[in-house]
Amino acid sequence: xxxxxxxxxxxxxxxxxxxxxxxxxxxxxxxxxxxxxxxxxxxxxxxxxxxxxxxxxxxxxxxxxxxxxxxx
Length: 72
Fold this sequence. Notes:
Residues 1-31 form the Arginosuccinate synthase-like N-terminal domain. By secondary structure, this protein is of the alpha+beta class. It has helices spanning 10-13, 18-27, and strands at residues 41-45, 48-52.
């Protein structure tokens, strides 16, 4: 490994709001599948996908229909 490489971890180092993150993505032409109208935070990668939102945090409460954006 190169000890001169600088590790960037924006999620940990920058304390941006969701609105600021979306604005940054728009300004830098980074495609994101969400907007400010959606209450959900969606993370997806090779190993899985997760949706987060206040209403989804209670395992005893049924999720609302709009939480399922990949179903038909």
